[in-house]
Specification:
about 350 residues; alpha/beta; D-Maltodextrin-Binding Protein, domain 2; 2 domains; nine-stranded mixed β-sheet; three-stranded mixed β-sheet; 13 helices; 12 strands; disordered N terminus
Length: about 350
Amino acid sequence: MKLSTLLAKFTLPFLGLICASAVSAQMTINGAGATFPYPIYSKWFDEYAKVDPSVRFNYQSIGSGGGQKQILAQTVDFGASDGPMSDDNLAKAPGKLLHIPTVAGADVVAYNLPGNPVLKLDPGAIAGVFLGQIKKWNDPKIAALNPGIKLPDQDIVVVHRSDGSGTTYIWTDYLSKISSEWKQKVGTNTSVNWPTGLGGKGNEGVAGQIKQTPGALGYVELIYAVQNKMPYADVKNASGEFMKASLESITAAMATAQIPDDFRFSMTNAPGKDAYPIAGATWLLVYEQQKDAMKGKKLVEFLKWAMKDGEKMARDLQYAPLPENVQQRVLKRVDEIKY
C-alpha cells in the first residue's frame, strides 16, 4: 500500500473526529423574553458567533412576561424584559437577579389609513382611543389636532398585545402617567384587562394586524413600524411639543432618567422639549450566582462585549445606545456575576 493511501486511510477518520468534537464542544446559552429588542439581540447573537464560535445563543422572542416567568423558573440562562421586574416577582427568585439594561427604544402609535397621512396625537386622544371613548377617526378631538387632513368617518380598530409584554408595560406606564382614569381603571403592567380592542401576539403580531386591518391603530416598537413601512404619529410630549420617535428624541428622554443602583427605572412622559414621551429601556435578567460555571463565564464575556461593541450597532436598528457613563456602571455590575 502506498504511503499516501495509508496516510489518507488514517487521516480522514481522524479529521472527522476533530470536526465532530468541535461541533459537540459548541455551547448553547438559552434565553427568552422581550420582542421589543429582538431585532438588535438577533444582530448581537449573529455577530458574537464570529467573535466566539464556541458559543451559540438560542433566544425565544415570547414577550417580557414569558421572559420573567422562565428566568424565575430557571428554565433559561437569561431572561429579557422591557419592564423592570416588580418587588413581588424578584422576591420569588431562587437567587439574586440582576437587571442589565441594554438599549432604549420607543413605542409608536402606528395606524392604517388611506394615503397614510402623518398624524399628530396628544395624551388625551391616545388615552381616549384606548379607553374606548374615542371610536371614530373623524372624532373632533383627533380632527382638531390635524387640521387640513381629511379623516374618514370610520371606526378605529384598536390593536394591543395579547401576551405578557414589556412593550405593553411601557405603553401602560405612559398611559398611567397621562390619564388618571387609565391609572385607576387599568393601571401599569406587562398584561392588563383592555377596555377595548383586538389582541396580537408579539410586536410582529400587532404590526401584522394593523397592516391588514383598515382603520386599525395600535402600538409597536419603532423598528417594527420602520421595517413594515407603517406610518406612526407625532406625539405631544410633557413640554407641549409634538415629537416624532427617533434616535435623538429617545436619547433626549433617556438623558432625563434617574437611574438607581438596581437599574430599574422608567423614562415615559419625560420632561424636556426634545424628548419622545413613550420611550423605555430594555433589560437582560441574569442571576448574580450562575449555576453552570462554563455557561456563566461565557455569558459574562458576551455581556461585556455587548456593552463595549454591541452598543455601537444600536443606532442602525433605531435603538438608542446607553450613555457612556451608564455603560460603565453596567460593566461594573456584570463584574459582580459569579460563576
